[in-house]
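Summary of Year 1 activities. Much of the first year was spent building the evaluation harness for sequence design. The harness presents a backbone, in tokenized form, and records the residue chosen at every position. We chose the following record to illustrate the format because it has been used consistently in internal testing since the harness was completed.
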């Protein structure tokens, strides 16, 4: 049984990219689909297909010059520790990494959250 489906799904995608797989199957939920959609908008995955009959999502990984786009990521929030970032904290961040946040306007990347003017819980940091 999976207790943290977001963490499990994101780590599966990362491991598949490092193993140079073309696709990976992750567990289906609305929240996981929203995170994968945010990764697609950021260019980290090529496309994904939700299969409700199997309760899975098939994620096609993105590659650039035969190298995976997604090389490393870090799970920030966990079930036991939720970390939040406000808009001023997002602006003050000088790192070149990309964040995926859950906000009041849905699951967004850090760039999208800045455009919308919202902060939220940090799910994943893509290094």
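For this record, the design step produced the sequence shown next.
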């Amino acid at each position: 049984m999976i207790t943290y489906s977001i963490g499990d799904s994101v780590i599966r995608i990362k491991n598949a990219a490092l193993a140079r797989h073309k696709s990976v199957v992750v567990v289906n939920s609305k929240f996981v689909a929203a995170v994968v959609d945010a990764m697609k908008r950021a260019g980290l995955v090529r496309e994904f297909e939700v299969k409700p009959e199997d309760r899975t999502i098939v994620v096609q990984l993105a590659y650039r010059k035969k190298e995976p786009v997604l090389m490393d990521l870090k799970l920030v929030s966990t079930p036991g520790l939720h970390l939040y970032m406000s808009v001023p904290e997002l602006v003050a961040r000088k790192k070149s990494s990309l964040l995926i946040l859950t906000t009041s306007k849905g699951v967004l990347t850090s760039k999208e959250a800045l455009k919308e003017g919202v902060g939220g819980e940090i799910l994943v940091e893509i290094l």
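Helices lie at 5-18, 30-41, 87-92, 110-116. Quantitative recovery figures across the full test set are reported in Table 2.
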